[in-house]
């Protein structure tokens, strides 16, 4: 199956998350889909709501938050779900890989204990079966000596090796959906490439769906089928990766492309987005990006909230009042930088 015919592993619709004292919602009407076997990226600056969105798939909401909308994972509605349903989601349907691998392990426990515990306690495997499975998973993530690594403590492994252990740990549940929250940010460039290659291979071999959280639009486009661009808790644009990179339709997407160095080719002059991301204490009267947008029209963009406009293919959308008239100029700017 291809396109929208594939089953949705993650379906978020109208998700709104607010916390007391904030001037705006953390998430405001978020809608996104990850289908079976598909890699999807959620891209944006720090504070845009990317990580909060990913964690909602596991039923992890900010303390004291008011939540509305829908988050369906593997057929289970997570919003308002009880502990039993959430346990099934977290131990069978989805697994998360976090940014800092050392934050997720107990420094005084061996790697073998860390990996075999969920296999024995949750899946009911014997000690021998759990150990065999742990060895197989360490080999699957490319670690050179699985028997030795099982005996090691976390401090004996490099950051890249430990992140491979965390990927192996995520796979102990045989999830259909991987949630990857900036899994390479804490690593050097070479190791980043290795980790992304491992994730891409595992996704292909195991038919996994993947949601990749990143601030790097070029990386997202290189490894994912589709990209969602988020700003101030809202989805600004979504499109297939190649379309988004070649023909951005939202000024924020265009700004992200212009402010990041290319992965290949000569280094062009970078143009940073002016101003700072919208803080959680700030209120929004129209488009949240209006104050930083070079194409904003005073009295329009800062007072009128843009409604998402879906494309006929169902995989593309943009939330910009001027998207139709700006389309050609944004494409010309993008092509001019790449030539």
TrEMBL record:
<dbReference type="Pfam" id="PF00005">
    <property type="entry name" value="ABC_tran"/>
</dbReference>
<keyword id="KW-0547">Nucleotide-binding</keyword>
<dbReference type="Pfam" id="PF08352">
    <property type="entry name" value="oligo_HPY"/>
</dbReference>
<dbReference type="GO" id="GO:0005524">
    <property type="term" value="F:ATP binding"/>
</dbReference>
<keyword id="KW-1003">Cell membrane</keyword>
<dbReference type="InterPro" id="IPR003593">
    <property type="entry name" value="AAA+_ATPase"/>
</dbReference>
<dbReference type="InterPro" id="IPR027417">
    <property type="entry name" value="P-loop_NTPase"/>
</dbReference>
<comment type="similarity">
    <text>Belongs to the ABC transporter superfamily.</text>
</comment>
<keyword id="KW-0813">Transport</keyword>
<keyword id="KW-0067">ATP-binding</keyword>
<dbReference type="InterPro" id="IPR050388">
    <property type="entry name" value="ABC_Ni/Peptide_Import"/>
</dbReference>
<keyword id="KW-0472">Membrane</keyword>
<feature type="domain" description="ABC transporter">
    <location>
        <begin position="10"/>
        <end position="257"/>
    </location>
</feature>
<dbReference type="InterPro" id="IPR003439">
    <property type="entry name" value="ABC_transporter-like_ATP-bd"/>
</dbReference>
<protein>
    <submittedName>
        <fullName>ABC transporter ATP-binding protein</fullName>
    </submittedName>
</protein>
<dbReference type="InterPro" id="IPR013563">
    <property type="entry name" value="Oligopep_ABC_C"/>
</dbReference>
């Amino acid at each position: 199956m291809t396109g929208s015919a594939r089953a949705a592993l993650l379906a978020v619709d109208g998700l709104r998350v607010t916390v007391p004292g904030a001037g705006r919602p953390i998430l405001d009407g978020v809608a996104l889909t990850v289908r079976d076997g598909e890699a999807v990226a959620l891209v944006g600056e720090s504070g845009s709501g990317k990580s909060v969105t990913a964690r909602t798939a596991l039923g992890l909401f900010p303390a004291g938050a008011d939540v509305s909308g829908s988050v369906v994972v593997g057929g289970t509605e997570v919003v308002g779900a009880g502990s039993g349903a959430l346990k099934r989601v977290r131990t069978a349907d989805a697994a998360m890989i976090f940014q800092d691998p050392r934050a997720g392990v107990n420094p005084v426990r061996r790697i073998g204990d860390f990996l075999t515990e969920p296999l024995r306690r949750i899946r009911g495997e014997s000690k021998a079966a759990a150990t065999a499975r742990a060895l197989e998973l360490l080999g699957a993530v490319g670690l050179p000596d699985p028997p030795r690594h099982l005996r090691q403590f976390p401090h004996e492994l490099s950051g890249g090796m430990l992140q491979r252990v965390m990927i192996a740990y995520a796979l102990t549940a045989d999830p259909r959906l991987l949630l990857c929250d900036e899994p390479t940010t804490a690593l050097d460039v070479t190791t980043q490439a290795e980790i992304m290659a491992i994730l891409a291979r595992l996704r292909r071999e195991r038919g996994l769906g993947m949601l990749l959280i990143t601030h790097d639009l070029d990386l997202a486009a290189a490894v994912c089928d589709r990209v969602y661009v988020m700003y101030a808790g809202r989805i600004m644009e979504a499109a297939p990766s190649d379309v988004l990179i070649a023909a951005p339709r939202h000024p924020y997407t265009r700004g992200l492309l212009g402010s990041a160095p290319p992965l290949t080719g000569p280094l062009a002059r970078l143009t940073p987005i002016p101003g700072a991301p919208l803080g959680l204490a700030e209120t929004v009267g129209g488009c949240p990006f209006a104050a930083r947008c070079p194409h904003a029209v005073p009295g329009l963009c800062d007072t009128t909230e843009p409604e998402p406009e879906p494309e006929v293919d169902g995989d593309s959308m943009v939330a910009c009042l001027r998207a139709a008239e700006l389309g050609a100029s944004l494409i010309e700017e993008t092509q001019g930088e790449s030539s």
